[in-house]
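Duplicate of #3305? Posting structure anyway:
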């Protein structure tokens, strides 16, 4: 460590914090002495690929983003398995669980989020887990080697990926969801119906419009009780009902927090020496759970840490893609629509294809694709750019290949 360079301490060795460090190294290599503290005993890994770790499509080594060697090569002091437990803002020092005390000139909080665990009777039984980290996957794999029945509570992205992974590991899985529409934040009822049939065809049992009221068992969980009184046998229960920003440390240090750590357009907190990025933050009353906005936050935050303070963060449109092998699904924008919008819909039940585009005037504002999602990125760009689709409206549902000649003036006049 240099005696002359300022020190940047990063709390959290996850995707958001380390992406910010990577961007900073590109903009201003050597500007800071950097120290990183992480709660997990690993290098930085890609949480998005945990579902593929569960299915066996990826190994732990294959989902690593930054190995311990990378930190050494970039002169970064990495403290794994040693989370920061206290921030002394007056003295500008942090204290770790293992007793390390370190001063900082700039502090970056990237504590991410914690899985929401329903406050149900029986939630503390062995065999009840979230789906957030490598440890959770290892617990699930251990159960799959020993037991036969699993229940996954939550029919969102993580819940479906967990249920599919456990099924592929040989368990009999029941997926429990409180509404009748799977992925109800990403899909409309038509697309969700196709998804449900696909999952049932894979051997999953679905319990929709079902409310979990308790878990039962002596020492290890043995099953789930629903509001209608029915019981579902389960030796493993995975709660995938969402996440909440991890703001415990920030709140204890006196930083202003609401749902998340409140930051401005530069990702600075109310303390000018402290920045925050990722799922732990709240920007303009919005919190975040997808990777695209977090990457943009990292770029903006890094520019200010690098003293190139010209960038500002603005929340933008996001898109969703399900990571289940053999299921093509994509949604973006306002896919529900309403007053003042029109729908373009293509249904091909034989091929299992459904497409719905929501238009407002001459612009695409939302899209849901199931069974054929190869044009998802193109529709997303039309949404983000607010492009005039008047010349291609009649062929828009057929995808970019059918529409490009009408959008390319050179080809149109050739």
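Output from current build:
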């Amino acid at each position: 460590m240099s005696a002359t360079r300022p020190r940047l301490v990063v709390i959290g060795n996850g995707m958001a914090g380390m992406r910010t460090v990577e961007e900073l190294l590109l903009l201003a290599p050597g500007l800071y002495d950097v120290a990183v503290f992480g709660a997990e005993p690993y290098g930085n890994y890609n949480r998005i690929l945990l579902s593929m770790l569960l299915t066996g499509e990826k190994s732990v080594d294959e989902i690593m983003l930054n190995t311990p060697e990378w930190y050494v090569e970039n002169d970064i002091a990495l403290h794994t398995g040693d989370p920061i437990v206290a921030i002394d803002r007056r003295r500008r020092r942090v204290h770790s669980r293992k007793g390390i005390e370190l001063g900082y000139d700039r502090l970056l909080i990237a504590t991410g989020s914690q899985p929401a665990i329903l406050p149900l009777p029986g939630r503390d039984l062995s065999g009840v887990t979230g789906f957030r980290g490598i440890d959770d996957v290892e617990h699930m794999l251990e159960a799959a080697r020993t037991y036969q029945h699993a229940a996954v509570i939550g029919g969102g992205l993580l819940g479906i990926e967990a249920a599919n992974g456990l099924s592929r590991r040989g368990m009999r899985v029941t997926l429990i969801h409180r509404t009748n529409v799977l992925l109800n934040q990403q899909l409309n009822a038509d697309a969700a119906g196709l998804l449900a049939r696909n999952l049932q065809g894979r051997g999953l049992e679905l319990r929709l419009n079902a409310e979990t009221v308790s878990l039962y068992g002596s020492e290890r969980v043995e099953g789930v009780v629903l509001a209608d009184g029915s019981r579902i046998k389960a030796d493993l229960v995975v709660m995938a009902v969402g996440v909440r920003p991890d703001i415990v440390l920030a709140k204890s240090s006196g930083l202003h927090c609401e749902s998340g750590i409140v930051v401005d357009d530069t990702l600075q907190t109310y303390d000018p020496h402290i920045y925050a990025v990722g799922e732990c933050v709240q920007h303009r009353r919005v919190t975040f759970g997808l990777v695209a906005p977090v990457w943009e936050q990292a770029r903006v935050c890094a520019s200010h840490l690098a003293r190139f303070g010209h960038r500002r963060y603005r929340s933008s449109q996001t898109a969703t893609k399900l990571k289940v092998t053999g299921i093509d699904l994509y949604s973006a924008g306002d896919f529900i629509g309403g007053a003042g919008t029109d729908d373009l819909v293509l249904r091909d039940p034989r091929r299992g294809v459904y497409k719905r585009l929501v238009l407002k005037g001459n612009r695409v504002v939302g899209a849901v694709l199931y069974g054929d999602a190869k044009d998802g990125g193109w529709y997303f760009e039309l949404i983000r750019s607010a492009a005039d689709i008047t010349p291609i409206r009649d062929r828009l549902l057929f995808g970019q290949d059918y529409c490009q000649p009408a959008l390319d003036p050179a080809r149109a006049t050739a």
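Confirmed duplicate; merging threads. The longest strand covers residues 353-360. Residues 54 and 137 are 6 Å apart (CA to CA).
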